[in-house]
Amino acid sequence: MGPRLAFPAGEVPEIPAARLASTANEREPLLFWVHTGRAELQISGRTRSVTAGAAIWVPAGVAYSIRVDPGAVAFPIPLPAADLPPALNRVIDFEIPADWQDWLVHQFAHNLGFLRGETAAGAGLIELVAGVHSDGNDNSPSYSPPRLPRSTETLEIARTLLRTPSDDTELSRFAQQLKIGVRTLQRRFTEETGLSFVRWRTSARIAAATSYLAAGREIGWTGSQVGFATPAGFTRAFREHTGMTPTDYARANRRPTPPREDETLAQGVALLSEEGARSGSAPAPPTIPASGTWARVNDFHVVVWIYRGSARVTFGDRTWNLRRGDAMWLPAGVRNSVEIAEGSLLLPLGSQPGASPVTAPPPRVLHFAREAQAYLLHTVVANYTHLRPEIHDPARIARLIRSAAAAPLPSGDQADPVETILAALRKNPADSRTLPDWSARLGVDEDMLLKDFVAATGQSFPRWRGQLRMTLARAYLEEGLAAGETARRLGYAHASGFTKVFIAAHGMSPRDYQRRGWRGTVEGLIDS
Fold first, then answer.
1. Residue 444 above 80 pLDDT?
2. What is the three-class DSSP state of 123?
3. Range of the structural domain that residue 382 is part of
4. Pairing of the two strands 4-6 and 364-368
């Protein structure tokens, strides 16, 4: 017999209207996509109507507000800035092919920060936005702009240079203006873009030059416009980056449209966008990769839902295989991890505060019919972004599933010994007391305490404490703390000892984890 059905036929709640007050993404562009129904996006006083299957690209720094009709579902999706060409610095309306929809949900899920590893927007998605869809007959060479850095200071410098390619401000001057070390800026440019600052600026200048040349601009004027002191220097750099001279590039790429005085790299992309829209072709989406969560001990109860495909959930010492439509209640305080199959999508439906499994309902699986999918997608967006109804109950689904399981009753007014230990370690993960120490401190039998601890958490005391520390370690590292400070907070005598344990648990160093171990958006519209 399968899991109990939640929301029987005819009982799926209606989806209310939702709204987001005026905001602007600081660093990452927004892809606003309507999955079902209709929404409105207001930008610079203009209201744009967006219907199911359509999307709008909003560059970072552009203010917008959103209103979603009753019955509609829309996703605000920040995208990794480091993976995007800087040419996309204008608002773009475009259509989302049906086979891209699951990939966009995958992108949204990664922004919430609960999945392992980082994610890239994918070259195909960028082509989809820009409208640069090859028809298979265009063999003309092209040159891609350098990717944007991620950190606030380097991104500000990059945007300055993209706006004015001829800007020759030295990195030391930028460092003074931003009150940051020159070496720090140099390191960040290299780590975040794969290029040194000097090479990144040259690459950006060459990218701008290709737009001017394609628009019919004269070579000497183009070189001067993007910051080269001499035509010879421009030609040499252009050949190094593109493999051809400016003359050959202009001959192969020149557009039939006459040049305009305000022609820029972004406007060149605009022309390509119009051509791509007319072509009617679209790139295929990447395959959604297998993924999962890091093993963790949560300080909240959470409900996860399989929107597509399947997943395997390990909770304590038990394992569940979930299929499409299944939702599972995972109580706080017990080690859990999820492995998600290729092509599958797992989404969190909501959470409730809680730190202990002692008085919480045990794990429970319910099944949602496909008729409930739109409402559940609305719930995910409303619970984890600021695009939500004016009156919204974020715990509605969590309460529904929690009520389906009988919660164990507290034994009385006296605090449960296991609960006392869990609460103390959450408050101070550096606490070094052993279970025998706790037995003496609480005045309970050591064997009974050991049995009760394993029954409640599914792990021995040392393993549970180690897992708690690794859960908190990831949170500290995601906040930007150094390995040494993280080790101190968690009770490790030396940073080297902490690093050794972290590598054993994650297969990467703390520093590597900060670079590529997770993906969580920095934008305020995500409320995760």
1. yes
2. helix
3. 291-403
4. parallel
In the chain, the number of structural domains is 4
In this predicted model, what pLDDT tens digit does every residue of 85-112 receive, in sequence order?
A: 555 777 888 888 888 899 999 989 988 8
DSSP string, 443-478: T--HHHHHHHHHHHHSS-HHHHHHHHHHHHHHHHHH
Cα 320 to Cα 315: distance, rounded to the nearest angstrom: 8
How many CA atoms lie within 13 Å of 374's alpha carbon, on the beta-carbon side?
16
* Residue 315, CA distances (Å) to 72, 181, 488 in order: 35, 46, 29
**Structure-block tokens of residue 33:** 């996509």
DSSP character at residue 408: P
Measured in degrees and rounded to the nearest 5, phi and psi for residue 322 equal -105, 145
Band the pLDDT of 207: cuts 50, 70, 90. Answer: confident
- For residue 489, which amino acid is it? R
Give the separation between CA 475 and CA 481, rounded to whole angstroms.
Answer: 9
| Tokens encoding 104 | 């966009």
- Identity of residue 415: A
Task: Answer yes or no: do 198 and 266 share one domain.
Answer: yes
**0.70 exceeded by pTM:** no
pLDDT at 143: 65
The backbone torsions φ and ψ at residue 469, rounded to the nearest 5 degrees and listed phi first, read -65, -40
Q: Single out the residue in 279, 306, 334 at which a domain terminates.
A: 279
Which one, of 393, 325, 376, 526, lies nearest residue 36 by Cα?
376
